[in-house]
Amino acid sequence: MSGDLNQAKILRNKVNRAASKLKYNFYQTQIAAMHESGSHDWWKHMKTIMGLKTNGKSCMHGLANKTTDGDCGLLANTMNDFFVSVCDHLLRLNKSHKVFDVNEELPDQYMISVCTTFKAFESVKANKATGPDNIPAWVLRNYANVINSLREGVLLSMEWKMANVIPLPKTSPPVSIEKYIKPISLTPIAAKVFESIIMKWVDETLEGEIDAKQFGGISGTSTTDVLVELVHMWYKATDKLNSYVRVVMLDFSKAFDPINNHLLLDKLQSYGLPVHIFRWVATFLLDRAQRVKIGNEYSHSGHPNGGVPQRKLSGPNCFLVYINDLRTTVPLYKYVDDSTLFEICDRNDVSVIQESVDIAARWTEQNDMNINSEKSKEIIISFAQDGNYRSTIPNIKIDGEGYSTRLPCQTIRCDHFSGSDMEQTCG
Question: What is the three-class DSSP state of 182?
Fold first, then answer.
């Protein structure tokens, strides 16, 4: 027996040494060089190492098998019809809008120089995804003359406003088009460069105008900033005896898609946007077209009545302006379209957060948007060991046209800085 044990130890040590050597070799050949690579190559390599798929084509084929008998072309058409239908209830922007009557000469300060354009194109990654024109980034240089031809009231070419919509599954595999697919718009690179220059001027005008509690799409802010600020306030509040925090997280349905372009332009104008910049932004929104791309299959073109495209530079900027006038009586923190309301209560206080939820609900109706009650949540945070007070707190409801939806609520009972337990869930 002792001989067998000694032999086992010898073999074990050999295996351990071999494993260590293999790990070292793997690091040297596969990992070490990645320290010098860009983020694109790093993620591509990591996905290869982990055996992950690098695209969602298989997901889309699975959805096609489920919904269109495997026909990806038909699936693309079905998706595009749905994406366009989200804003069918809106009045489409047209050239009769007053902004297109402006014939003033473009001021020199808004002339785009060859140097500015060259730098803008230089900053575009050579492997950046192309739009419907299929012109790669490395081809585009010295484009200032083309861009400056727009200065005398010429509208943007339709080719610049056509977008390839890439369906991004929210789950794998996606169960349905309506709830589990997110549209990502890819426009021509030349249009993106022009857009980036215009949006810098828009940002300059809007500086100091956007809600201080908006942390999304603002230079120098991030999700970390808003989370640190919120958690700090909640911890500080619940340090007090008998205090609890009531949090409501609102989710807007298809937030970027149902934006009323007429309302958006009115809001932009109220911030004193220079008339030529205002006109250019309106031109981005006028007569937009899109088609869904799945693999090598394309849908027919569709023309949405409103909305702003996601993943375009103008999209988040326009949305920040659109939601900027949403204010409530309790603190409201925003990260682009994610909105979090909260109030700090004593057990003997009367909760007033329902009033703010009602204000938000009225705002969404007035601005042609909808609150997604399925994804909106309420959370109650407390350090109290006795949870009986929960029964005295009225449920949050979202009232709409003839219906009332009660938000699902989760109560978190925390042990000071050492963890937390989910006390109950009520629907």
Answer: strand
Beta bridge partners of 346: 243
Please report the pLDDT score of residue 174 as a whole number: 85
Residues 6 or more apart whose Cβ sits within 8 Å of residue 310: 182, 183, 184, 185, 256
65 and 57 in contact (C-beta within 8 Å)?
A: no
Which DSSP letter does residue 167 get? E
Phi and psi of 250, rounded to 5°?
-95, 135
pLDDT class of 241 with cuts at 50, 70, 90: confident
In whole angstroms, give the CA distance from residue 64 to residue 67: 5
* pLDDT band, residue 24 (cuts 50/70/90): confident
Burial grade of 211 (CB within 10 A; 0-12, 13-18, 19 or more)? middle
Q: What is the mean pLDDT of residues 330-352?
A: 92
Whose tokens are 């449920």? That residue is: 395
More reliable by pLDDT, 84 or 159 = 84
C-alpha 69: how far from its chain's center? 31
- CA 248, distance to chain mean position in Å, is 19
- SS3 call for 19: helix
Statement: residue 420 has pLDDT above 50: no
CB atoms within 10 A of CB 24: 10
Provide CB contacts within 8 A for 114, sequence distance 6+.
142, 144, 145
* CA 426 to each of CA 29, 406, 423: distance values in angstroms, whole numbers, following the listed order: 53, 10, 10
Q: How far is CA 370 from the centre of its chain?
A: 16
Q: Which residue has the tokens 């789950």?
A: 171
The residue ranking higher by pLDDT, 337 or 98, is 337
**Residues in contact with 356: Cβ distance below 8 Å, sequence separation at least 6, in sequence order:** 248, 328, 329, 330, 332, 341, 343
Read off the DSSP letter of residue 27.
I
Q: Cα-flanking dihedrals φ and ψ of residue 322, to 5°?
A: -65, -40
Q: For residue 226, what pLDDT is reported?
A: 93
Angle made by CA atoms 94, 95, 98, in degrees to the nearest 5: 105
